[in-house]
Structure formats: structure tokens, C-alpha cells
Amino acid sequence: MDYSREMLCRLWLQNADAASWNAVKRLLCNYGSAEKVWDAFSPEMRKELSEKGYQQLLSFRNAGRDKQLMDLDRVGAQVIFDSMPVFSERLRNIPDAPDILFVRGKLPPEDCPAVAIVGSRHDTRYGREQATRIARELAQMGVVIVSGLARGIDTAAHEGALQGGGKTVAVLGNGIKGIYPPENRDLAERILQTGGAIISEFAPDSEPLPFHFPIRNRLISGLSDALLLIEARHRSGTASTVNHALNQGREVFALPGNVGAPGSELPLQLLKEGAMLCTEGMDIALHMGWKKVQPQQVLKQVTLFDEAAEGQEDSILRSLRLEEKTFEELLEETHLNASELGGRLTLLEIEGKVQRVGGRAYRKA
Amino acid sequence: MLARTLCFALMGVDGIPVTVETDVSGGMGSMTMVGLPDASVRESRDRVTGALRNSGFGMPAGKITINLSPADVRKEGAAFDLSIAVSLIAASRQAAMPDLDNTLLVGELSLDGSLVPVRGALSMVISAREQGVEKVILPRSNAAEVASVEGMLVYPADNLLEVVQHLNGKMPLLAQEQIPYDELLHAHESRYDLKDVRGQQGARRALEIAAAGGHNLLLIGVPGSGKTMLARCLPGILPSMTVEEAFETTRIHSVAGVLKPGQGLLTERPFRTPHHSASLPSLIGGGANARPGEISLAHHGVLFLDELPEYQRTALEALRQPLEDGEVTVSRVKARTSFKARTMLVAGMNPCPCGYYGSRTHPCRCNEHEIRRYLDRISGPLLDRIDLQLEVDAVPVSEINASGEAESSRAVRQRVEKARKIQQQRLKGTEMSCNAHLQGDLLKEYCTLDEKASRLMEMAVEKYGMSMRGYNRILKVSRTIADLAGEDQILPQHVAEAIQYRTLDQKYWGR
What we know:
The structure holds 2 protein chains of 2 kinds. Chain A is α/β, with parallel strands linked by helices. Helices cover 43% and strands 13% of the residues of chain A.
């Protein structure tokens, strides 16, 4: 792709750290174009920029305009400007829209519905499982899943999208050259392989600084048509994503959790205030009126007595019908001894009829 | 004149005969001690001088030479005090003592002449008996320790004067009666009993299997789920120690100096709980003069490591070899010694740093990354040596308060003993004594599966992605379960029960 001189100068300005962005904007305003800022760049500008921002720009200016493109090329990233047709239409319309983005992979087409799934990094098993499941369901309908590649719910959402064979977009809080947290490098790789994208608006080399994340969050909601909140506390980073979504006019959905659990604070409050309740992917699709998506077989078979046959395995399955039980509870209900029950459960697990979950609890698969 | 007395130096758990030769001759008053004495032995000259004087004897005048022979064995400790003192008295003809050659003299002296207990008395006495020595005089506090040794006349004494009067026949000491091991055995009952454990049926069963097959056990559970209590009950359900086992274990404890004064032969299997700040030498054995470590102190008993991931990684890795071989060889510049270490490892740990991962009542505050790092402190090879892994859940309050008693340790022990007997019969003539030690060809020979059972194993291997080692461990545990059930053949239900104790590998460690 050919970039104009103006674009390269704008790209250069993006290398200032995010704390200097306002100053950069003022400079652009005062000088009229990035090119003019480049030409007029002098120690005078220290007044406008912070010392750090000035030094960063100075070193990149000395390296030359074309060097930065080569650097990006090396990590397989490209830069897109709001003036280009490939730029996300959804992002153009949000307040405080970015005018420059770094992208690895390929942004999904504009007409694809997109849902942001966000939640706490301190997730529970429940939250993680639900995030994965709903992301999978949505992905199977052809919905793009947007999230932040953070630990916890974000990771679960991306994983779910991949399981469902769909595309997913990760918006980073650090520069495009890095992946944070490090254990998600493999996940990032898979996102790219399956035709998804990784996006960042920060200087390509920048670290994941705490104040980046609230800034980044407006892109997560901005890239989506709807936002699904899974687990979060009142005053959390996730709450800022929800606020952005509301400001940007995105529909907000929330998944209910147990009353009293810390992760249920924000979802339950939002539900009370009128957020849409979501327990499965179809809830979102139906409410958003997405015609294209094909409702799959959503009716679950409700069977209560089909396993009422005799036998001990069935007595185990019967007592697991409604909720998960610990080994001790099962002992009591099935009247088996520990040795028999242990063996039976292993058989059922191998057959894929029960699953072992945290502690020493089991549930029906 | 020259006088000789007999004592023993310690080398690991063995005693080496040491002759104390004392020569007093005319000349300038001086005292030299030769024969590689270390600092604590050299100090004995001052203790002996005081003890002699305060017991009514005098320090001989003239040139005194004391030789500890053989001269090339390094001697340490204060156990030589008594033999040095007696030889001085004999050499200076302050008392006539005819029978010195055939009497082992052991004991540290205090300045007033009274005898202070020493470490390693049991080892010295056993080694002395092997050397044909028939009598031993030792401090009264050490008497109980050697009470069960057969074929040895044991004279407990309180002070130096008593010893001298006995040896010259003026006032003989009373020989201690030998106490047969069986009599000691009946006196003991473990303080921790399974009947006090509420609920935990699953864990009780695992404990029984571990005890029956001598399998190492890992307990994973939230804080307060009773991991420590369960582990403490283990010695009570293990079969009683045989005489040989009791002697082996007591010797190690005696050499390490951890026997309580007046403690007789150990009848209860040792239960060692080193703190997780323990250093590698304190766990494995070592120090300048090669003392036994915790794993040897737990010989024939249980080594309980609570909060397993908190131990130093190097210390944990060093446990691997002794767990496999049942023996530690400690090599030092001054000494090279092997200590037996046939122990059952029981480890306790939380599922995550905050402790509540997977709990149904408490939220866990850890993220995936932290949990990963926590679990990764336990290496795969160490995990591979632990046959049984068990998750322990907290017992609900309602059950804690419920009345009624659970099955007692005694009842469980009877089943365990029966299963052990089957194993001993099967492994007769080999060095192994229980299923946990099965290896190679014997494993193949004794752990054959029928068609249905092997089909089940294949399915499990596929489902849980098990390694060859994991497979072998399931075989061993299945064998134990079959032994508990009194079955010759391992049946599918035995395999099925055994598999559940290895599935954590995959869940927590992804192995």
C-alpha cells in the first residue's frame, strides 16, 4: 500500500506516548497538517509536548519516516488511516474516534454483525464457561466477537469464538508489536490464523500501561453493534467499557450471576437499570433483529424421566440431573460405597456422561 | 601403666569399635589426646578432669597419653567421656577393674560425675553385639532405647562412681531386664484415629488404598478441608512395624539424636512433618558429618510435606531419587554414608495461591497465570512418583456436628494388614515388600489385565492423555485395590476406581 507523505508524518506523530496525544492534537490543529509539524519540529515543541513525548518523536524523526513502516512490516502489522476505505465504518462514528490504527490480520467486513464480550480478569468458572459458550453460539451464527485479549472473560470469549469457527477481533492496550498477557501469545496466533484481527492504536512499541486500558475500551465497544457483560465489579475497567458502549449508542446485554457473588455486582445492577438479559447467543441475535443469522436448534430437549431405568449408573446420573454434586453428596444419595462410586464415576466420565469440576464435584455432561 | 577400655564411634547408623588406650608414665605433667578426635572429643579432657575430681578420684600426675584407636577414623561427640575417665582411673591404679575388655562404656560426663545421655546408643549397642561384646554400661536415660536388644547385658548407671564400683566388684549394678518387642507393641495406639474424621468417605478410601499398597499420596484441597488430619491418621492404619523395622528406624532416630530421653524402641511408625522452609540437607541428610535427614527419619513411616509448592524446588527435586531407591547416600569430605529412607510420601497442597480455586463457597482471587505458576513449582518427575492424587473438599458444618462415630483406624488397619500380607506372599524372595515398589518385569507379571479391563485402560489413556508412567501407576494402584478386595485377578472395577486418582494430572497440570 502506498502512503502519502502526510500519512507517514501522521504515523510518526503516533509514536508519542498516549499521554501526549492531546498535545499532538493541538499541534496538528496549530500547524494544519502532520507534514508541517514534521518540518517545523524543534526543541520549541517541548513546551507543547511532554519531555518524554518530545524525546520519542525526536528519535523516530532521526530514524526516518520509512523505517517505521519496515518495523511494522516485520511483525506483520499494517497501519490504516480513517481516510482509507478499509477503515472501520463503525469506529468513524464514535466520539473521540481514532484517526490511525495498527492492524495485524484482517478487519472483518463491515456488514458482519459484531458483539463485544467483556468481563472481569478475576473470573469464576461459571463466568468463563458462559463466556465461552455464548461466544461459541454467536460465532456459529456468523457473528464477530470483539474483546480485549485480557486474562479471564476476554480470553474465554476469544476461545469460544474460535471453537465456534468464527472470526474474532482483539483490541490491545499495548503496542501492536507485543502481546499481553504473554500466556495469550498462542491464542493471538490462532486468532490471526482463523482470519481474525488484532488491533491497537498505541505506539507500536508501547507497554501495556494502566491508563491505556480505559482508552482502549472505547474501541472494543466501538467496533461492535452490541456489548455483552459477563462478570464485573462496580468500579472496574469493564465498567468503563459499558459506559463507552452507552455513549456510543450500542445495545448493552448482561449475563446474570449469583446474587452476592462479587462478579455479579455490575451485571445485576445493569439488568435492574434496563440492560437486556442474555443467557444465550440467540437472545442477542433476536433482539438485534439480525435476519441473516440462522437460528439453530435452540430448543433443548427437556427430559425428566428418561434415565429412570434401573442400575447404579443411572442413580448417579439421576442425582446429577439438576445440579452438580460433590463426591460426598453422591455417596449419600446413591447409597454406594466410596470404592464403587469412584469406579462408576470414572466409567461415566470416560463415556462422556459426567464431567468432573472444581473441588471433587461432578456434573452431567 | 597402660589401660584399655572399649567404646564405639558412629559412622552413619553403624558403630565402629574404638579402643581407648591410656598410658600414664613419669615425667613432666602433661596430657595429649591422639587419634583424630574432633573438638567435642578434645573438650572431654576438661569434663573428665572435673568428673574425676568430683567423684573422689584424682587426676594422675605425670605424662598422660590417650590414644583413640583406630587412629584414622574421625571421632566426634561426647560419648567417649566415660571410657576415657575409666581408663584414666585404671591406668593410675586408683581402682582395680578386671573385666574392662568385654564391657562397652558409653556416656557423656558432667563435671559432677553424673552421666548424660548420648545419641546413637542403640547403634553402638547393636554393633557391639555383632562384635561379640557382652556387656554395656550406659547412662540411665539411654537404657530404654536398648532394652529390646537381645543377648546383651545392659547396666544403666547414674554416675562415674557407680560405674567404677561396679567394675571393681564392690557394688555391682543391676542388669536391666530385656523387654521383648511384642510387649512394647501392645502398649501403643496412635493418637490420631480415623473415627474422629467426619465425612470424607472418598478421602478415607484413598488413605486406605495408599496404606495398603504403600503408595505415595497427594492431597489437594482448600484450607481447612482436613488434609493434615487425614495425613496424621495414616500411621495408625499402617501395619505395625516388625522388630527389624523398629530397630532400623530407632537406630536412625538415635543417631540423629531426636529420641526423647527415656524413649524406648519406636513402636509407632514415624510421622515427620518438616516445615516448608526446610533446607535440602535437612530433608535429605547431610551436614559436615553426614547426619540423616527428614526422609530417613521417616524410614518405615510417613513423610508429610504440607504446602508442597512452598518447599524449595531443589529440595523437592532431591527427594526423587530416595523416593525411588529407598536409600540416600550422603557424601561429604569427611564421611560418606548411606541412610535408609523407605518412606511413604504424603503431600498436601492448596489448588491455587489463595487456596480457594474450585471451592463452592469461597471465590478464588487468583488468575489463571498465578495458578499456573503455583502448580508449576511441582515438577512432572516428582508428580510421577506420586501414585494417588486426591481432591479433598471441606466438610459442611452440618456434618461436623452430626453425632455418631465413623469407622475406627483399627478396623481399617485390619483390612490393610490383610492386603499387605497378600503382597508379601507374592513378593517373597524379592527386595520389595508392597505394590508401590513394583517395577519392570514384576509389574508386568503381577498386574495383568483381562480383556475388558485393558479395553477400559485404553479408553482412559485416550481420554486423559496419559503417559506410560501414568499408566503403570494406575496398574499398581489397581493391584492394591484388587488385593484389598481379596481378588487374584485385577477386574475392570478395580481399574476404574484406580483411574480416578490420576485424572488430576490432566486437570491441574495439563499433563
